[in-house]
Amino acid sequence: MFDFEDEITYLTIDEVRIVDAGDSDVIYADTKRSLANAEQAVRGLLDAKVLPCILGGDHAITMATIAAFSNEKPIHIVHLDAHFDFIDGRNGITWGHGSPMRRASEMAHVKGITTLGPHNMAAVSRKDWEASRAYGAHVVPLRLVRTQGAVASVEHIPQGERVYVSIDIDSFDPSIASGTATISHGGFTYYEVKDILREIAKRFEVVGVDLVEVSPPYDPSGVTALLAARTSLDFIGSIFHERMKRRG
After folding, report:
1. S-S: 39 plus which of 64, 112, 126, 166, CB 3.0-4.6 Å?
2. Dihedral sign, CA of 44, 55, 205, 104?
3. Is the model more confident about 120 or about 169?
4. Arch. (CATH architecture) of 74-247
């Protein structure tokens, strides 16, 4: 559990307090325990009635943060990624960074999954693809998102739905986000993602956010980390701006 009165880092803007709740403990070479720690941390945030915004880690972390919502009302996941992330397993590993949407699809409290922007499907087997179709995942490839725009890309989700947003930094083009291990050329621009996230904030109740896969050693310029920080703050701002508008 977190005691927010004792946190050393926070920022208050109008009625919104942004708190740094610290890091989740990672146990070297023990993925399951590390993910269990992350899940416990997010459950603590939800118990405190705050919006969890998880930064860092590879995409495996999303399996834990989504699991933490099991005692909450059902959610729909909106997933921005260069990749599909519906792989059942690879080399015997079923809880890796290529599997978060597959594991999420097995959770009873997840109503649906929308993946926006994939443009590197080379690692997807037919079996995994067919499993995603059987589940009902809504996949909008990058070129289609770019053609139809932000509104059309999410309009299949019912207005007002409770949404959890997972952003992989590799969904951005590597010209602005080289600091990640799995770059794929042709990704989103900053403004394309900003427009998508703003539309999500307008249409839905955002209940959780993560932004993952940033690896600063791959980008000595620091541009990738700056992009991640700016995107996170933009989205948080949009979420609470829309909440305040709804309150009148």
Report:
1. 64
2. negative
3. 169
4. 3-Layer(aba) Sandwich (3.40)
Question: What's the N-to-C CA distance of the chain in angstroms?
Answer: 32
- Taking the C-alpha atoms of residue 116 and residue 149, their distance in angstroms, rounded to an integer, is 11
* pTM score over 0.85: yes
Structural contact between residues 80 and 188, judged by C-beta atoms closer than 8 angstroms:
yes
Q: How confident is the model at residue 6, as a pLDDT?
A: 44
Q: What are phi and psi of 96, to 5 degrees?
A: -95, 180
| Contact yes or no for 47/70 (Cβ under 8 A) | no
Q: How far apart are CA 126 and CA 85, in angstroms?
A: 13
- Residues contacting residue 240 through CB under 8 Å, at least 6 positions apart: 16
* Orientation of helix 142-154 relative to helix 190-203, angle to 10°: 20
